Amino acid sequence: MRKLLVWLVVVIAALVVIFAWIARGNPSDRPITATMGRSPTLVEAESERIPTVDLAETVGWKAGEAPRPGAGLAVSRFADGLDHPRTMLTLPNGDVLVAQTNSPPRDGGGIKGFFARLFMGKVGAGGPSPNRIVLLRDADGDGKAEQRFTFREKDMDSPSGMAWGGGKLYIANHDAVLAFAFDPGPTALAGEPKTIMDLPAGGNHWMRNLLLSPDGKKLYVAVGSASNIGENGLEAEQGRAAIWEVDLASGRRRQYAGGMRNPNGMAWNPSTGELWATVQERDML
């Protein structure tokens, strides 16, 4: 019995040491200023059998709290109680469309899949996608949406990108871009959609952002990579890590830009006419 207890203590102590080592990870010993400026300090990469993972704690705004605005500006809570709001589109009449969405079901089992589900659940991204677009309306102009409507649920499959122009509302599911006949005013989106473009489905970066050209003749579709560093091979990345251009009159499409891990937040530079895109996360495919 004494030997058994000794072995039990040794095993527990070893597990505590291993857990502490894993939890500590591989923190940097350099000051934050070493990563700033035009000449940051670069070091050789260090390989790890167990990757360092640090998850940010999700903290919401309490009642009465708000971001601190700059001088001369004010911030108010426009809407709350939304289920996983990810993207917004303001229509010409002031209505705001909000995509309540999450990733499509993720494949993967084993140890990697277990930890992926564990980490996603911890940061609040482990649940099913609401697959819903809601319409928020501030009819009295007081900066708060006093009206909320379910705008569209049918045909929605992890929707994210939205764009409106020329009597058409474009919505990007994770696997296709849909077009609906729509003029601002109604609080629900009726009718059947037309598929503008099929997209590579799912992947690590499943959101699909949309942007119309200034003349409304072309639609730009951002598709993120399926992996983090191409670890599944480049064949799995065909059509991904790219921005696609669709000619809406002819339906012709071409890859407008490539080599971008997760392009989002597209916008036109009003001075130069250039297309800008935020590439989320620090590394590129």
Structure description:
The protein has 2 helices and 14 strands. It is globular. The model has no long low-confidence stretch (mean pLDDT about 90). With about 280 residues, it is an alpha+beta fold.
How far apart the termini lie comes to 57 Å
Largest sheet: 4 strands, antiparallel
Q: Averaged pLDDT, please? A: 90
Beta-strand segment tally: 14
Fraction of residues in helices? 10-25%
Number of helices: 2
Q: What overall form do the CA principal axes indicate?
A: globular
SS strand fraction: 25-35%
SSE string, helices as H and strands as E? HEEHEEEEEEEEEEEE
The value of Rg in angstroms is 23 Å
Helix-and-strand structural type? alpha+beta
Uncertain parts: none
Strand order of the largest sheet: 1-2-3-4
List keywords for this structure.
2 helices; 4-stranded antiparallel β-sheet; 13% helix; 27% strand; 285 residues; single chain; alpha+beta
